[in-house]
Write a structure and sequence with these properties.
The protein is an alpha/beta fold. The protein folds into 3 domains: 86 residues, Arc Repressor Mutant, subunit A (Orthogonal Bundle); 98 residues, Periplasmic binding protein-like II (D-Maltodextrin-Binding Protein, domain 2, 3-Layer(aba) Sandwich), CATH 3.40.190; 101 residues, D-Maltodextrin-Binding Protein, domain 2 (3-Layer(aba) Sandwich). It is 41% helix and 24% strand. Strands 3, 4, 5, 6, 7, 10, 11 and 12 form an 8-stranded mixed β-sheet that branches. Strands 1-2 form a two-stranded antiparallel sheet. A two-stranded parallel sheet has the order 8-9. Strand 3, helix 5 and strand 4 form a beta-alpha-beta unit. Helix 1 crosses helix 2, helix 1 packs across helix 3 and helix 5 packs across helix 9. GO terms for molecular function: DNA binding; DNA-binding transcription factor activity. One of its GO terms (cellular component) is protein-DNA complex.
């Protein structure tokens, strides 16, 4: 049974005349009559009583008419809804970001973009860099702002380096250090709060490398999956942490930030689906490059 069979039967039920019903369906009467017979054969029911002068619906025909109109109405609405959805998706940009992007100006980026593309709906989705890459590859995201990723093997994903940022040491304010920079090696006996490796292999390895560069292996006491959690733990005296400089903007009571001597920096990238609207992608990247920022701590 096809949808056209339902259309034909509805026309016949409303006209109660084969010729007029066939005309309304833009088909000649012989194939129209055959289609009605096919429908009855498929259902195993007689839907109409035919005579030389009249056409009358059977009880089964009247019941089927009610159900057929509901089916056709639902099918038409599904068609309309799908078209509307496709049109809305054509004017939508799904962007992934990690939490620290809040302190790098992501909200200002979106506002500026909306001024240029008022008809484009921008949706932000917070997730890890790894999850963003997976979402871009599956088409759930159009683009994402990620930390440095390992080599991207998919030909469907592009990558642009946006920004590099210094690392700083976050410590409890009970340390009462007035200088704007500290010698990281002097903190080798402190408990370190570090990003869980499963949450961010990049940050785990990078922060460990910074400590090794300073001549020690960090005493990892606590693991976190969010930067704000890391800083909150520091503020409560649970240890110290090496964090991107932008997080000095968090201004969480009980935590202070100081420069450390390292040439290792954090990198921010934009990944994007090559199948997405490249005009929108390029525009957002240009805006990101002009807006992205770090909270610069005062130098000595």
């Amino acid at each position: 049974m096809e949808l056209r069979h339902l259309h034909y039967f509805i026309a016949l039920a409303e006209q109660l005349n084969f010729s007029r019903a066939a005309m309304l369906c833009h088909v000649s009467q012989p194939p129209f009559s055959v289609a009605i017979q096919q429908l009855e054969s498929y259902l195993g029911l007689q839907l109409v009583i035919r005579s030389s002068r009249t056409v009358e619906l059977t009880d089964a025909g009247r019941d089927f008419y009610r159900r057929a109109t509901q089916i056709v109405r639902s099918a038409n609405q599904a068609f309309i809804d799908t078209q509307n959805y496709a049109q809305s998706q054509a004017h939508r940009l799904n962007i992934g970001f990690h939490g620290s992007m809040i302190f790098r100006g992501v909200t200002e980026m979106v506002k500026t973009f909306k001024q240029q593309f008022a008809d484009v709906r921008v949706s932000l989705h917070e997730m890890s860099s790894k999850s963003q890459l997976e979402a871009v590859m599956t088409g759930d995201l159009d683009m994402g702002f990620t930390h440095s990723l390992a080599s991207i093997s998919s030909h469907h994903v592009g990558c642009i380096n946006l920004f590099s940022e210094r690392f700083v040491l976050c410590m409890p304010d009970s340390f009462r250090i007035n200088a704007s920079s500290v010698d990281l090696a002097k903190f080798k006996e402190e408990n370190f709060i570090i990003f869980d490796r499963d949450a961010s292999p990049y940050y785990f390895d990078t922060i460990t490398s910074i400590c090794l560069q300073a001549g020690f292996s960090p005493k990892i006491e606590h693991h976190a999956k969010q930067w704000l959690t890391t800083i909150a733990l520091v503020s409560k005296g649970m240890g110290v942490a090496i964090v991107p400089e932008c997080l000095a903007q968090t201004r969480i009571a009980g935590a202070i930030f100081r420069h450390i001597d390292t040439d290792i920096v954090a990198y921010l990238q934009c990944i994007y689906a090559r199948t997405a609207d490249q005009t929108l992608i390029r525009s957002m990247v240009d805006i990101a490059k002009s807006h992205i920022r770090s909270a610069r701590l005062p130098d000595d």
